[in-house]
Amino acid sequence: MSAAITAKGQVRRDALLDAVIRVLERGGLCSVTHRAVANEAGLPLSAATYYFATLDDLLTGALRRATEGQVQLFARLRDGTLADFAEALHRWTHVDRASAIAQYELLLLAMRRDGLREAADSWYRALEEALEATAGVARPQVAALTLDGLVLRMLWRGEPSSVGAIEAALREILGDAHDRPDRLPPSTTSGSSA
Predict the structure, then answer these.
(1) I need a surface site. Which of 20, 30, 37, 53 has the fewest CB within 10 A?
(2) Averaged pLDDT, 38-47
(3) Residues near 103 by Cβ (< 8 Å), separated by ≥ 6?
(4) At what angle do helices 97-110 and 114-135 cross, to 10 degrees?
């Protein structure tokens, strides 16, 4: 594929990446092939192999695309409330499940494929930053690990199933940090660690 991509080419490439997410949701990682993705996107097989020469290219592209969407969501939540965070988690795990399931499939794959690790790491960094900003969490890495478990439970068991229940779970996970009047915005604290 050439370095420059046309507008039509970008539309096709995006359609293929969106198709990877849907194929992953329905059949898991082993169901992702160039042919399956092209069929799902309504494009010829040659389009899939043109834009993504290898299956790893296709999977890396899909993880990056899914991660970009989550990073943008987390960035918007930085100035939001815990209720906003709960609403976003509910939408992601109960309404737009395909993206969440694909994200986790690809995060697990990143443990075995170095090419996916950067995108996976950016997802976790964005989550930690959103938790720190939204909830004033002193240890965002620990909160992110716990939230990871909550998300997996919502995807697996469907619970908690309402925005209110998710917000209650978040309050339990995050403690009272979000209600502290003395909390300073993360950018004004000194000695923060990465």
Answers:
(1) 30
(2) 98
(3) 63, 66, 67, 70, 123
(4) 120
Q: What is the pLDDT of residue 176?
A: 56
CB contact set of 92 (below 8 Å; sequence gap of 6+): 70, 73, 99, 100, 151
Q: Which residues form the domain of 95? A: 57-179
How many whole angstroms from its chain centre is CA 5? Answer: 25
Residue 115 in any domain: the answer is yes
pTM: 0.71
Q: Dihedrals φ, ψ of 191, to 5°?
A: 70, 30
Q: Give the largest Cα separation in the chain, rounded.
A: 59
**pLDDT tens-digit series, residues 146-186:** 988 999 999 999 999 999 999 999 888 887 554 443 333 33
**28, part of any domain:** no
Amino acid letter at 117? Answer: R
As for how many domains the chain has, the answer is 1
- What value does the CA radius of gyration of the chain take, rounded to a whole number of Å? 18
Residue whose pair of structure tokens reads 């075995």 in the numeric block? 112
Three-point CA angle 120, 126, 129, nearest 5°: 145
Which has the minimum average pLDDT: 54-68, 116-130, 168-182?
168-182
